[in-house]
Amino acid sequence: MAGSNTSGSKTGSKTGSSKTGIWIAGARGDIASTLIIGTEALKQQRISASGMTTAIPPTSQLDLVGINDLVIGGIDIVDGNLAESIKAVGQRSRTFDSELVTALKDEIDAIGQNIVCEPDALWEAGDTDQNAPNMAAFILKLRTHLRDFANRHQLRHIVVVNLTSSETLPQETPEHDTLAGIERLIAGNSQHQLTPSICYAYAALQEGCSYINFTPNRGMDLKGLQELATQKALPFYGDDGKTGETLVKTALAPMFLYRNLKVMSWEGVNMLGNGDGQTLDKPGHKVAKLRNKGNVLDSILGYTPHAGVDINFVPSLGDWKTAWDLIHFQGFLDVKMSMQFTWQGCDSILAAPLVLDMVRLSEFAARHNEPGAMKHLAAFFKNPLDCDEMDFHRQFQYLLDYVQAHLENAEPRLTELRRQK
């Protein structure tokens, strides 16, 4: 196994290695491309670590895997020259120039050798008119790719990160609730109850890898996959990364609660133009995303205001998201007031550093034998697993409490080591 856990080992533990793998599903997408060039630029100190929670205290005080010890690989449905595709991302998003890509070309080319192309990794769970791969064979290929990646680079651990586009939801079935049920679906080639993302999660766990689902796709929310993670003693978390309007909403909504200002309406219109925007323009693909964006207010406020959420594809925006929000609220003497804000941010620039944070914290959890849902990562997600709290400030406190507990536990050990010296 490529990790510190040994139960069900497949890829082989590399106990003498300090290297950690990031294996990305969707490795040629905009977020992954930004992550790749950003990581390699960080290694050469060409950029700051702005945007990374793990780069500032107290989280930076943990014994986290170093940026220089991260090795990137992954899978995508398209092939091609990685440096050229990353250069195209920079040109479209206007976030980095071609000179940076040229300066890092050798490093990017090396990463390109770690990315496999699997065109079969694209099917719709409810589409009968398609040629989906055999599920068992597809998962076997995924596991083989992971094993090869681990062995080639002598990796201590791999964190698999799902950065693929939104999928249609699979057909619900009780088989999702147990590991045996999921394995029956795989054996029965049940493509309508299985999605690429479910297969990624299953393969990752079987190979002893931690798993992060940054998408709204089904995966570690399924009890059957959680059972597998428990069996393998592996950490995991998701779902649906929180980088834009929902981040602002979960930080701002508590203010209205604390001041007893009744929110009557909260309307949000989201516009984006990248590949995710194009995918979400299809009604079947935006169901989970709209659900995750719409659920947060009820939980924070304790009541249900009129709240509309819409997602529109605007091709000219590229990787830049724009959100327009109108908040209509009521104050003393029942006077009605309003607040409006416009959020404009580059999706990949907001997301990529969070992925690095979560990879480092996932490897830390695996190394410290902390299996299960990493609730301390709740602040990174719209739909955090095993967590009903949606208030961003309280979610972030989970991470601070986790870090503080580790720092307090580490101090006696450090004192003992100093005494022995």
Strand count, sense and barrel status of the largest sheet are: 7 strands, parallel
CATH architecture of the largest domain: 3-Layer(aba) Sandwich
Rg, rounded, reads: 21 Å
Overall number of structural domains: 2
Largest sheet, spatial ordering of strands: 3-2-1-4-5-6-11
Which structural class best describes the helix and strand composition?
alpha/beta
Strand content: 15-25%
Number of helices: 14
- Look up the CATH topology of the largest domain: Rossmann fold
**CATH level-4 homologous superfamily of the largest domain:** NAD(P)-binding Rossmann-like Domain
Average predicted confidence as pLDDT: 91
* CATH class category name of the largest domain: Alpha Beta
Q: SSE order, as H and E?
A: EHEHHHEHEHHEHEHEHHHEEEHEH
List descriptors.
globular, Rossmann fold, disordered N terminus, seven-stranded parallel beta sheet, 421 residues, Dihydrodipicolinate Reductase, domain 2, four-stranded mixed beta sheet, alpha/beta
Overall description:
The protein is 41% helix and 17% strand. It has helices at residues 30-43, 82-93, 98-103, 105-112, 135-153, 179-187, 196-206, 223-232, 245-258, 275-280, 287-294, 296-301, 347-367, 392-420, and strands spanning 20-25, 70-76, 115-117, 157-162, 210-213, 235-238, 262-272, 306-313, 320-330, 336-346, 372-373. A seven-stranded parallel beta sheet has the order 3-2-1-4-5-6-11, with helices on both faces. The protein has a four-stranded mixed beta sheet with strand order 8-7-9-10. Strand 5 (210-213), helix 8 and strand 6 form a beta-alpha-beta unit.
